Amino acid sequence: MPRATNKAASHRRRKRVMKEAKGYYGARSKVYTMAKNAVEKGLTHAYKDRKLKKRTYRSLWIARINAAARLNDTTYSKLMDALKKKNIEINRKTLADLAYNNIEAFNELVKFANS
User: Fold this and answer.
1) CB 39 within 8 A of CB 23
2) Cβ-based neighbours of 17, under 8 Å, separated by 6 or more
């Protein structure tokens, strides 16, 4: 009995990998085995960096809030503590946006929290 290789499925699988490797440099976009390795590594980094992106944005927000808070003679940690004590539930993303785009509103919020 001859060996069955299922050429249609193999071809489809290879074609998918080569399509994902389009735009890669040199043999990484031309040779299947190299393309497969490059695509696999790329997908691994993509998964990892989706998690890292969240951390990066949070640290950016904190830096912006801290910079704007220091213009109002307070610090990030004191501001967050004051907001918590006043039961003002506002997330860091919104606070950072206020600090970056609408400094007057941020200053009012800081005054209210510290009063």
Assistant:
1) no
2) 32, 35, 36, 39
Helix (H, G, I), strand (E, B) or coil at 43: helix
In the chain, the domains with their CATH numbers are: 7-114 (1.10.1900.20)
Residue given tokens 């640290």 in the structure block: 59
pTM listed for this prediction: 0.75
- Looking at residue 2, the DSSP 8-state letter turns out to be P
Other residues' Cβ atoms within 10 Å of the Cβ of residue 78: 14
Q: What is the pLDDT of residues 30-61, one digit of tens each?
A: 999 999 999 999 999 999 999 999 999 999 99
Q: Tell me the CA end-to-end span of the chain in Å, nearest whole number.
A: 87
Residue with tokens 């997908």: 43
